Amino acid sequence: MVVDDDTTVRDVVRRYLEHAGYEVELAGDGEQALRLMAEHEPDIVVLDLMLPGIDGLEVCRRVRERGSTPVVMLTALGEEEDRIAGLQIGADDYVTKPFSPRELALRVTSVLRRARRFYEPRTVRDGNLVLDVAAHTATLDDMPLQLTTREFDLLAFFIGNAGKAFGRTELLERVWGWQFGDQSTVTVHVRRLREKIEQDPAKPKRLSTVWGVGYRYDKCSID
C-alpha cells in the first residue's frame, strides 16, 4: 500500500513497484489508508508523513498497534525530527524526498525480504528472554514482546553475537543491509529495544554502550 496525498508521487511509485512485481493499492490520506487496511492487511506500507487529516505518524502508530506490518516512511529532506519520531514509533525504514523511485523499490524489497526471510527452526535464549527465530516471536518472562521486524532482527543479531562490540555503521550494513544511511536509525532502535528488554533502560545490563565504538550485548545468563 502506498499512502501519499500527491497523485504524481503515488502514480510514479505505483509504476515502479508494479514493474518490480508487486500488486499496489493506493491511498491519498491517512483515513483512507486505515480504512483500506482494516479490509485487507497489506504486506508493507509506504507511508508519507505529511498527510492531510490523520498524519503519517498517527497512521504508523496505529499500524504498529495492529501488528508487525513493515512500514517504509517517506519524509522531506529537512524533517529529521519527524523521521526519528517515526522510527521511535516503529517504522522499519525511511526514504527522504526527493527520492529515486528505483531506490524506494529496492528498499521495499529489502524490508520484505527481512520480514519474510527463511530461518532454520531454532530458538535464541538468554535467561528469561527467548526469541523463536522460526516463528519470529519473542518473550520476556514468558510475556510476548511487541517487536518490529527491524527490532527483532537487531536483537537476534546482538544475542547471536553476544560479547562483541559493533559500531553503528557496521550494524547498518549487517542488520539493515545498507551501505550508507543515517546512524541515528541504529540509536533509535537500540533505545527502543532497551525500553522493551531492560529492567531499567537508563542502566542497561544487556545492551550496553561501548563509548567510542557502538554497542555490545552481554548475556545475563550463562549457557
Automatic annotation (TrEMBL):
Looking up CDD domains in the UniProt record yields: REC_OmpR (cd17574), trans_reg_C (cd00383)
Q: Gene3D superfamilies, from UniProt?
A: 3.40.50.2300, 6.10.250.690, Winged helix-like DNA-binding domain superfamily/Winged helix DNA-binding domain
Task: List, for all copies, the residue spans of the domain called Response regulatory.
Answer: 1-112
Where does the source fall among the domains of life?
Answer: Bacteria
Residues where 4-aspartylphosphate is found: D48
Give start and end of each OmpR/PhoB-type domain.
121-219
- Name the DNA-binding segment ranges: 121-219
InterPro entries, per the entry = CheY-like_superfamily (IPR011006), OmpR/PhoB-type_DNA-bd (IPR001867), Sig_transdc_resp-reg_receiver (IPR001789), WalR-like (IPR039420), WH-like_DNA-bd_sf (IPR036388)
Question: Is Coiled coil among this UniProt entry's keywords?
Answer: no
Which SUPFAM superfamilies did the record assign? CheY-like
Q: Does the keyword Transcription apply?
A: yes
Keywords, A to Z, come to: DNA-binding, Phosphoprotein, Transcription, Transcription regulation
Q: What is this protein called?
A: Response regulator transcription factor
